[in-house]
Amino acid sequence: MTDTINRQVLLIEKPAGKLGPEHFKLTDASMPEPKDGEALLRVRYISLDAANRAWMHGATYRAAVETNSVMAGGGIAEVVSSKSDTLKPGDIVFGDTGWQDYAAVPAKQLTKMPRMEPLTHLLSIYGIAGLTAYFGLLHVGKPKKGETVVVSAAAGSVGSIVGQIAKLKGCRVVGIAGGADKCAWLTSELGFDAAVDYKDGAVFKALKAAAPDGIDVYFDNVGGDILEACLPQMNLNGRIACCGAISQYDGAPSATGPRGVPGLIVVKRLTMQGFIVMDFMKQRDQALADLQGWVSSGQIKVLEDVIEGLENTPQALIGLLAGENRGKRMVRV
Amino acid sequence: MTDTINRQVLLIEKPAGKLGPEHFKLTDASMPEPKDGEALLRVRYISLDAANRAWMHGATYRAAVETNSVMAGGGIAEVVSSKSDTLKPGDIVFGDTGWQDYAAVPAKQLTKMPRMEPLTHLLSIYGIAGLTAYFGLLHVGKPKKGETVVVSAAAGSVGSIVGQIAKLKGCRVVGIAGGADKCAWLTSELGFDAAVDYKDGAVFKALKAAAPDGIDVYFDNVGGDILEACLPQMNLNGRIACCGAISQYDGAPSATGPRGVPGLIVVKRLTMQGFIVMDFMKQRDQALADLQGWVSSGQIKVLEDVIEGLENTPQALIGLLAGENRGKRMVRV
Q1: Burial class of B30 by CB neighbour count within 10 A (0 to 12, 13 to 18, 19+)
Q2: ipTM
Q3: Which residues of A touch B253 (CB under 8 A)?
Q4: Chain A: residue nearest B226 by CA?
Q5: What's A252's domain CATH number?
Q6: CB neighbours of B17 closer than 8 A, spacing ≥ 6?
Q7: How confident is the model at residue A2 (pLDDT cuts 50, 70, 90)?
Q8: For residue B255, which residues of chain A lie inside 8 Å, CB to CB?
């Protein structure tokens, strides 16, 4: 360990509207000193997630991020030194490292991960993204063979996996994404049956054409207008897996919700269920075994979008919120 | 059978705004003649339900009602004559008789009911209202002892039973109803722990005081603003049983839904589930046995609001939509 300074990206202001580079500052701090029970970590990859933006609005499933502190974020890191019995130098862990080169984190808040190549897979298919797709689709959406599954933010880290799992379960899969290129990529590269470009307008009509038998499972990453367009097209006893509301994160949250709630929920006997991946961690081993099997057999393609350099983390998140990425975006530190 | 004419209430115009007496007409028709497989029924009690109004908007879980035909509605009736093997004169049945003195209805569309005194109980506690409350609360809301259950339209046919079942299951029960009198009645007569008068404004605050530990189960009969007020007060893993959206029925449906959907559903891992009682009919015997036990032991009070005369059916529905009734409203024909 030759570094003596620790570069950090601070959140210096909470955005009222769209997130921009002016809300962050790159700064040099001294190396953190691990306390008893903590490990000193060298951060290797930082995960970028739409949820990072939601944390700026206030408490969600975690406390809100605060200004003038290191921007929070999950990462894959290597243990440099340890004052905990459970971790030793060289161990690979996942945890909330924040956006920085080094972090001192209580061992209790870290999850030990296998050392694998490429390490990036621990943030994509075998990380939060893959597990979210797996549990949200299979345990919340519960698709049956022959049903129609629609997923929004379909080219993103979670959506791209949701669609592939739904395909291998024998469903008709429709992805909603922004832009003709992304849509073409979903059908040609990822095997989706159809794709709807929400930037093209007329989402309702395009969705109707793409899902002529109606929607049995809608995996919702975005909320807002797209949720509203899906609701009237849900079939009786349809399920909506509420994973996120990206459309609501970057800016002031909407003052209204989707039309048809709760009227259509009653009439169509729909179930809308929110979930977060942490609720399913007891079944993690089974999920990882399934995912590994599907990756080995080529039934799932792993899609990663790795950006170089801690200094580019703010722009990586801003771009993610604008829909730049295909697959799991992360920053190599 | 001495009658030679059959009085009928026709829906002569679909209301664009609020339902009024001008949308109906009382008329005399000739006695219906049952065809093969049908029974001729003498209607005894007509059920009034907020859903009657929703049927005027279009297809719901049933086809829309049409103008210049007999207004649809469930009723308890006695078989006068029968061209079906399964029914005989004197049998008591429940079915969509419509708003009229007599109806000829296919036996297949009728449910044979026990002859009991008072017959009105077949429309209230042992009818759709009681079963809706039972299944919606216990199978959809799934309250646990010690949890807080909130129910809207709490003085209505379903709500008044929901609250009483939740009480006997050991929950803290909060009713939302219109007017101080109704609210006082919920706590003094029906054993609710607290009541919130939504006509008093400041529903969010009043609900917070009435449910200081948050809401675990919200049994939603109304949708709209009250659903919006409940959402942020739901506890983690809370359940919303979506039974109806009365606030949306009488007038043009709202162009927006409740704020917080799907954001709060994700963050709080809520489940919103729509249901209709027909989906649970396989478990009807168990439900009726439970309800009978609770009525016998005095744990549930049966609340009925019986209005005399077919000619008063339109006004009975209009009044129900305005919140006049306490307990199950019906018309004795």
Answers
A1: exposed
A2: 0.92
A3: 259, 263
A4: A262
A5: 3.40.50.720
A6: B251, B252
A7: low
A8: 259
- CATH number for position A69: 3.90.180.10
Query: How would you classify the pairing of strands B5-11 and A102-106?
Result: unpaired
Closest residue by Cα to residue B161 from B188, B197, B134: B134
For residue B96, give the 3-state DSSP assignment: strand
Token pair, residue A37, equals 């029970």
Query: Which pLDDT belongs to residue A64?
Result: 87
Maximum Cα interatomic distance, chain B, rounded to a whole number of Å: 65
Which range has the worst mean pLDDT, B97-101, B184-188, B228-232, B251-255? B251-255
Q: How many angstroms separate the CA of residue A147 from the nearest CA in chain B?
A: 20
Whole-angstrom distance, CA of residue B133 vs CA of residue B162: 5
Lookup: tokens for B17: 């705004």
Tens of pLDDT, residues A77-124: 999 999 999 999 999 999 999 999 999 999 999 999 999 999 999 999
Do B55 and B188 reside in the same domain of the chain? no
Which of A261, A278, A295 terminates a domain? The answer is A278
Separation in Å, CA of A239 to nearest CA in chain B: 9
In Å, what is the CA distance from A120 to each residue of A127, A302, A307, A309, B266? Answer: 9, 10, 11, 15, 27
Instruction: Give B-chain residues touching A220 at CB under 8 angstroms.
Output: 262
Q: Looking at CA atoms only, how far is residue A256 from chain B in angstroms?
A: 4
> DSSP characters for B251-297?
SSPPSSB-TTTTHHHHHTT-EEEE--GGGGGGGHHHHHHHHHHHHHT
